[in-house]
Each structure stands twice: as C-alpha cells, then as structure tokens.
Amino acid sequence: MSIINYKQDHPEIRDAVRKLCSNFQDSYWRDCDREKRYPTEFVSLLTQQGFLSVLIPKKFGGSGLEISAGAAVLEEIHRAGGNAGACHAQMYTMGTLLRHGLEEQKNKYLPSIAAGKLRLQAFGVTEPNSGTDTLSLSTTAERKGNNFIINGQKIWTSRAEHTDLMLLLARTTPIEKRKKKTDGLSVFLVDIRNTKGSSLTVRPISTMMNHSSTEVFFKDLVVPAENLIGDEGQGFKYILSGMNSERILIAAECIGDAKWFIEKAANYANERVVFGRPIGQNQGVQFPIAGAYAQMRAAEFSLKHAIALFESGSNPGEEANLAKLLCADASCNAAEICLQTFGGYGFAEEYDIERKYREARLYKVAPISTNLILAYLAEHTLKMPRSY
Ligand SMILES: Cc1cc2nc3c(=O)[nH]c(=O)nc-3n(C[C@H](O)[C@H](O)[C@H](O)COP(=O)(O)OP(=O)(O)OC[C@H]3O[C@@H](n4cnc5c(N)ncnc54)[C@H](O)[C@@H]3O)c2cc1C
After folding, report:
1. What is the best residue among 92, 126, 154, 374 to mutate for testing ligand 1's pocket, by most ligand atoms within 8 Å of CB?
2. How confident is the model at residue 15 (pLDDT cuts 50, 70, 90)?
3. Which CATH architecture best describes the domain 240-381?
C-alpha cells in the first residue's frame, strides 16, 4: 500500500531514482550498515546515471538543474530505505567551486566530477577544538612560494576514504592578525589521491550509523596555490554561501526518511493483528502515525517554500534553516512512532527500523545542530541578542 504520492515535482527524476534504488534492496543497506561498509555499488550507479551531477551546469557536463532536482534525488533515496549520506556532500560542496572558483578551476574539475572520474565527497570544516565555532578553527595553510602548506586536524570528515578531492577550510591569517572576525580563513580544493599515509592521515571513527566519518591529520601537506578557491581569507563567506543549499538538501533527505517511517508504520498497523484486530484500529496506535504524517506534511511545505525562494534567486537563510529544523524533527518523530508501532520487532535488524532510526537521528546534530538553528532564528529573525 502506498499512502503517499511521491510524484509531486520532477516526477521523471523521482521515478528514475526509485527504479535505481530498487536494485538495492533493504538487505543491501543492512549489510553495509552491519559491516560498516561504504555503499560503493550504489554510489557508482548513482554517479553513472548522472544523479549526483544534476546541479552541475550543462557546460561542465552536468544536467544544469535547480536545487529542487537535487532535493528530489536525495528524498527518493531515503524514501526508498537507502541512505544518501554516502554521497550527498558532492551536491553541496560542488557549489563552492561553482560560485567562487576561477573558470580554469571549474574547467579542470567539474567535467571530471560530472563524468564520475573524480569524486568530491569530503568537506573538512569541523575540528576537535572548535566544534560548532568554525571561526576559531586552527588548521593552518601557510603560503610558501607557489604552494600552501597545511598543518592541523579535522574531525568528522565524512567519506575522506572514498573521495579524490576534499574541500578544506583552513586558516591563512593567524587569529590575532585578522581584521574582521570572519576574515582569515580560506577554502582549498585538495587533491588527496597521492597524499594519504604521508602528509595526510585518515582515521575512521566508528559511529552509531554507517557514515564513513573520519579524523584527518595534516602534516606539511603541500597544496598548490592554484587550488585556492576565490580570495585568500574569504573562505568563511564562501562556505556560508553554500549553507542554504546544504540545509535544503539535508531537509529533503529527512522528508524521505519521514515518509519511509510513516508508510512502514501505517502498513504494519494494518497488518499486525493483536487482541483479534489490527493494531491500527486502536486510536493509541493510529493517532501518533497520523500526527507524524501531519508534522511531516507541514515540514515538507516549509521545505518547498525554502526551495521556491532559493530558486527565485533570493537568499532564504531563515527558510532554509526552518526547513532543516522542522524536517529533521519530523523525521525523528516519525522514526520514534514507527519504532513504537512495531513494538519488539522494531528492534530486530531485519525490519530496518532500528537502522533508519539511527540514521535519521544524525540530522538533529549534523551538518548543523538544532541549537544553532534556533540561535540563528533568535538573532536574525526575532532580533534578540546573539547568544554565542
Ligand atoms: C556522523 C557525522 C558526520 C559529520 N560529517 C561532517 C563533515 O563531513 N564535515 C565536517 O566538517 N563536519 C562534519 N560533522 C560535524 C558536525 O557538523 C558537527 O558535529 C556539528 O556541527 C556539531 O559540532 P560538534 O560536534 O563539535 O559539537 P559542539 O560544537 O561541541 O556542540 C555540542 C553541543 O552543544 C551545543 N552548543 C554549542 N555551542 C552552543 C551555543 N552557543 N548555544 C547553544 N548550543 C550550543 C551544540 O548545539 C551541540 O548540541 C559530522 C558530524 C557527525 C556526527
């Protein structure tokens, strides 16, 4: 039974992604999760069929579509029980290169990324000591002739073992010498293919879900100056300019998860008979599922609003943040209700509820945690004092 019409926008893309996902049954994702294995086969097929390059302009070999297309791809992957966390960053990190890179840089990298010859899956921002406070990060990039020399450490750099390129934010001006708080950080497109094990060490972090996250250590890593994106010292602004698209794309994944949970819960509530009747006949079972559906729909409207504003060319900071907040809450609530509906069976691996539950939970913390979104709304929308 399908309780949700997924054909709302980009129906052809949605159909095609669902078809692709049907090659990867629940057992595939379950095995990857259990073995903490990267879903290479899935990501390769997604890349081959052009879905990871929908946002790359046509002149660089992509489909040149707008963000709603990227959102449709990611939502459908999650809606089908998969996890786009293995590859979603390519969609939003690529935007930094596209918006702020030189034409030579775009010509050099984007066609190969679109063709699947180069993977841009890693995004190195978070550090152990700075955490959410990005402006205090301490990994340095020191100019030496035609190169920058990188030293320091990142944490939670997801997919560093499954990428060729990493978008890296590093300090090019010491904190005490910067003129403005937001100055002094620079973005680099780092080709890490021949560096692992010498000047770059990648150490996997085992997490509650399969997310290929790592710690990355840089020791005198040489990056050619031609790999600096945009102006030196302006990197924080470049990263910020990509935040709206990141929020929107992650929110779409949350909506896909929420739909998956709600449909699973409703189906099970119809099928499972206890006390001589389907459990879904009990209001105590059906009302929470209906409530999760209502919450998901409201969050979805918020997401569509953010997408519409984004595509009209405005800078929907508030709406993108709202969408991320509401969609993550909606998917986590749907996860909770789904688990409760399944009773004991929800805890058994073979039903996939516990796996998806663990996966969905991440989005209240990463790539931005709920508190920081609330801080944004409090400061920028409600004009209260900055709290950090
Ligand atoms: C699985 C996973 C994958 C990730 N992938 C990447 C990646 O690919 N690249 C990358 O750069 N980062 C990545 N991250 C990092 C992620 O973006 C951060 O974990 C997140 O931004 C929170 O930072 P933190 O963990 O250092 O928390 P902290 O900054 O230590 O904060 C801890 C808690 O305190 C709260 N808090 C902190 N300061 C305030 C304040 N002023 N007001 C209110 N609350 C506050 C936070 O909201 C949070 O709940 C990933 C994280 C995880 C778990």
Report:
1. 126
2. very high
3. Up-down Bundle (1.20)
